[in-house]
Amino acid sequence: MTHEAREKWGDALTYLSAIVIAAFFLTPLAWLLSLSLRTRQEVFLGASRFIPKRPTLDNFAQILSDPTFLLYLWNGLKLSALGGLGCLLVAAPAAYAFSRFWFSGKSALMMTILAFQMISPLVILVPLYRYMSRLGLLNSHFGVTMVYIAIGVPMCTWLVKSAIDNIPKSLEEAAAIDGCSRFGTFWRITLPLAAPGLASAFILIVILNWSQFLIPFLLLNKDAQLPISVAIFNFAGTSNASSTQVLAAACLVAVVPAIIAFLLLQRMIVGALTAGAVKG
Amino acid sequence: MPTTTAAAMGAAQRRVAGPSLARRIEANPFTWLVPVAVMLGVFYLYPILDVFRLGLTNASLVGSDERYTIVTLQAMFENPALLDILKTTAVFTIASVVGQQAFGLAIALLVMRGERRKLKGMVALRTLVLVAWVIPGIANGLIWQMLFSEAPFGAINSVLRMMHVSPVAWLSDPNIAMLSAVISNVWRGTAFSMIVFYAALKAIDPTLYEAASVDGAGHLQKLRFITLPQLRAAILVNSILVTIQTLNTFDAIISLTGGGPGRATEVLSLFTFNTVFRNYDLAGGSVLSVLMLVISLVLALFYASFMPRREVSE
Fold first, then answer.
1. Quick one: where is this thing mainly located (chain A) (predicted)?
2. Interchain contact, B187 vs A28, CB within 8 Å
């Protein structure tokens, strides 16, 4: 009885803590939404108008009717997706080798690849900026995509390797007996079977690329080439107190695609992360 | 005549060896690693070697005329600002790493307890925490600026004003700006620690807790003698990841405070960026980049030295 009573108190305390934590994590986003729905006058009323008296979608209309803003969104999506796709192409063969071959130094090599993940993009961009300017790769989406691929490759290799680990070998062995080459087996059997794992790795990397700031900020100068992350930073630099509500709307538009992608694939992403984390 | 025969035989052999050569190439694991090796070689290894080289020159981002010298190295280490930058970086990193892990562990424990008692809303809580993690760093800084702002639209100060408490200079007071930067970083980074600890907690053998209950252990004793020792490896791995992540944090600070007020929140990565891309001092920035690499490596090795040995843990 006393035990049950104590558990009930524990439950109440659990809920109370959960509400406090939820409030901490929700408030910034709720505030962003609140500001983005206000008129300029109501922005100056602060927290007293947390729920705007006259909510308006004008800020969103202003942003989304601007063709350059749509271009920023498109650039962000294009760079993130191409980066993710390139990552898979580069990482999948290596992941296959790490999953299906036995060779000495394999785990050391895998740790070495993961160690690259620890290096700040800033460190490599210091010299890369100069190479790229000499090679004429500044202000090109191609150059940015290549750097995205390089930065995503270590994590992608690990994610795809654990996806391939989960596929039974028997189908590949059957294909080999039927005379299929190793590469043919990899391309026609392994990769299609690993599709769900490849998809979650792809989405995770696209989400990470979507937040990339430093690389496009340094390597792209022309306004029409910028992805959304750089565009909102530049916009924040030029905006003032009277355009806060527009900045809030722009931020929200930049953030929502990542949140939606995450929510739709939450289970796959959390699974991939925890698999990597436990082995890590 | 003999030479042509030899050539013909060689050709014949090659024709026979043809398919088996392809098979041999694809049976070699290193063939499969070539794309990754090329990408990492071109975009990581070569630039890193070049960073070491450039640190010993007087290179600038705009000029192309450079020569080898140790003047840059000397100047950078004699720069009185560097010590302050390193202190700022240490405070930001330690506070973020401790904050994110403590908070992440607390949430993971809370969610575990809620799931054990079959309470509702635990998945929703976990999801909400994780949503903060996918917010781009730049947006994170801008959002928290709207919360900390001292203008009328600043959320926290306008609530304080409504409660007749005097507003706080969250971003313009040098001492408080660091706290604000840490809070915003903890908000975004906690999710990662939470999910790592959540996975590790699930992996703990429940019979350990049952045995402890039989022996009459309380909640705190279970936490102290079972949970924390069992989480040791997860905490260490997570510490490495979070520390390096925090050291490399750049976008969330540049958009929140820009390193200010003054230099109160200018961490090493931001200082490196400013040195190279604002002052065009490529050589100086390379010295700082090497410093960043060395600090990351030393810290990773430091944590790794506390790792339990595999034989012992398994």
1. membrane
2. yes
